[in-house]
Amino acid sequence: MKTNWNNGIDYGFSTVRSMMWILGLWPLQNGVIYTIQWLVIFVIVSLTLINTLIEAFISCDAPRDGLETLRLTESCIHAWLNIIFPRIYMKKLAVNINSAVDDWLPSTKKELRVIMMGYARAGRLVALTQLIFGCLGGTLWFTSVFLVNKDKVATIENNTAWNFVIPSTCIYNGISYSTYKAIFVMQIIQGFLVLISECACDSFFFSITMHLCGQVELLRVQFIEVFRKRDGEKHCENIFGPVVRRHCQLIELNRNIEDAFNINILLRLLIISVVIAVSGVGIILSINRHDYKELIKMVTSINFFIIQAFLYTYAGDILQNQSESIFYAIYNSTWHEMSPTMVKDLIFIMMKMKIPFRISAGKFFYLARTTMTDILKTTLTYISFLQFTVNN
Question: How many domains would you assign to the chain?
Fold first, then answer.
């Protein structure tokens, strides 16, 4: 584990590190105790996912909100994937974190630290926002469920169909109020871990990708400085060596992020599209029934999932744009005044940089601004199909 953790890296990753530590997923932590901690979290989240899937497919007479069950099932699947993939690729992610720690060394120039601070601020803002609003929404949900059930205690006893934080009406049918309270506390813990799993890994992906964006921008600055140095000196041999080696390091860091998150992102975006489509149909039905309370809930849910998808596409788009900016910076340099040998080296560098840094979703498509519009177009198609099916 790196020992030179300083104020710069702490500013960008302290919130994410705390959440990842709870889950046993922080890449710089290791040991038997830390592995056991992850196994316990994995078992709890897996049981939570099984609980929601059983509730979704089991047949019983208890009244259920199908859309609410679908949204909670999506959250549990997302949390379960977030527990699995970062753990599998923990060693690769540790390389990125160690590189970030080295980038924030006190010896780093002030002007370069200013550039990195801008990207660190974006990552910190997203992490804190997700955590605060997630905890607020979870607290309101837990409180509302508990208050609804408390009103049933005076009138109905053991045959009460209790409302649970995690849908379990069919599984725990006919339990007493004392048993319900014990299960309610257990499900609060499960809900908290699902919440942290969603917030932690999404924030970690965004923060580590934005830091890579900052490093790519610094590489562009280094290329510009190299050209200025060449203009001021008559004999400059192998001046591209340091920046080329740095570019190779950044390629490895980009590949690590790609390997760790591409499948997770694909599944996440596919599930988000389905949930948004179903919620869109729910909005149409709520308007027809004049159920404005349910309408507000649907709109809030859709906004949440759109923001989640936007975080992925925004980070991927910024990374690609910063990578392409290096190519154009080299092209706009005074390459025509260089020696034939240097021009030949520069051509090979541009050929390598012609392929920008990108994050894909399961190797099927890349995350960019157009990805967000494609998701919305696909979702609208689903909504039209589902509305036609419902009407007929």
Answer: 1
